[in-house]
Amino acid sequence: MIPWLPDDIRKLFPFEPHWAETAGYRLHYVDEGPRDAPVVALMHGNPTWSFVYRDIIPPIVAAGFRVLAADYLGFGRSDHAADEREYAITHHVARTLATLQQAGVQQAVLFCHDWGGPIGLGLELAQPGFVKGLVLGNTFWGEGSEWHRRIFPWRTLHGPLSGPLLLGRRRMFVQGLRLSGPPSIHEGPAWTAYTLPFEYHASPGGTLAFPRAISLGPDDPTQPLADAIWERLATLDVPVRFVWGEADVVFPPAEQGEALRARLPRGRHHPMQLVPGALHFVQEYAQQEIAQACIDVATEAYR
Amino acid sequence: MTQKPIRPDLPVLSDDDLPDDFLSALQKLGSPWQAPSGHSYRIEAEGRRATIFLETPALTPPPSGDDIDRDLLELVSAVHEAVGGGWSALAVRNVARLWGWTP
Q1: Largest CA distance in chain A
Q2: Contact criterion met (CB below 8 Å) for A28 and A50
């Protein structure tokens, strides 16, 4: 765990830390707004943490909702594991559910980005009825995109021996924020905030395990979870919005975005909100749009 | 006089899930494997897991982390080349550069 934050990060991320204990780990989460208000939970991806929601949390709270944003094991202010197997996606789901339950949350509207999709939707599998509504942005359900099937650069990045060197020893995944995020986070306190978890622990955390967990076929360990999520999506009749980075090559809107829209019963009730020029880390481009979509879905879900 | 280690070899890289062709290529490098820098690395493999240790002989200061990483890039590139040809080794180096590391 990271017990304190430098002042320049706290200026951008002024939220009081909350801590959950689960399976021997201390996990950090943000918990803002009235405790008896309906809940919006913000699910991050690789390699971000709740910091990515620093400008999205306040407007949702101002609209009357309680907002939680948890840092997975190996990310943000949470503990890191010594054993790579601890980062299996099903373990992330179980620990995130335990974190939210310790906060007294039994159901939530979710915003899901990147791995926040499989983990967030995994909550619905673990506790049916948990998901009251969805806002999806540049995410997926566990199966890789066409981009993930390419040897160069993706499969080389986390490949045999190259993964432990480049993502493990060199802790390079965080550089993806520079490749797929706006210049405003390429330096200064935001960059410090994103690199801090891996500098503090001198560890890549869960950043190597996530790429290796993206399923590319029926033999991959994540495929059963991906199949179960895909099955559940077809009947998940909840309010949905899409806010999607238009220029993302990892999860292009025409591929994962449209597949999810077609699959969800209410996926086509509203047009996909494309964020022009936005790359993969859509939260760093469209704070107001994401916050408003969360407010709209939560208002509809908790009506 | 033969130098004997005065401290245990340092594990510097491991992979728990190596495919057979990568495991075979790694083992064919031979152990200990000597990097172009002159540093020596012992390779251990069991099942699908392989671990690479830096050999640290007596009276020799250990190399820096960056030096070890450069050695490991040579080793990893050699394994990828053995499995996938020169293009694969080049891919490893280019990905490293693309993601911000210029060894």
Answers
A1: 52
A2: yes
Residue A266 pLDDT exceeds 60: yes
Chain B touched by A150 (CB under 8 Å): no
Which of A275 and B98 is assigned the larger pLDDT? Answer: A275
Q: Which among A84, A153, A178 is the nearest to B100, CB-wise?
A: A178
Cβ B22–A157 below 8 Å, yes or no? no
Query: Residue A12 to residues A16, A46, A74, A191, A288: CA-CA distances in angstroms?
Result: 12, 20, 22, 12, 16
Task: Give residues with Cβ within 8 angstroms of A219, minimum separation 6.
Answer: none
Closest CA to A207 of A158, A142, A162, A252: A158
Buried/exposed B60-78: b ≥16 CB within 10 Å, e otherwise: eeebeeeebbbbbbbbbbb
CA–CA dist A118, A93 (Å, integer):
8
Total residues belonging to chain A: 303
Contacts of B75 in chain A (CB under 8 A): 161
Does the active-site annotation cover A248? Answer: yes
Dump the DSSP string for A26-92.
Answer: EEEEEEES-TTSPEEEEE--SS--GGGGTTTHHHHHHTT-EEEEEPPTTSTTS---SSGGGG-HHHH
List pLDDT tens digits, range B5-47: 556 789 999 998 899 999 999 999 999 999 999 999 999 999 9
Give the tokens for residue A20. Answer: 């959950």
pLDDT of residue B100: 87
- Residues A44, A93 contacting (CB under 8 angstroms): no
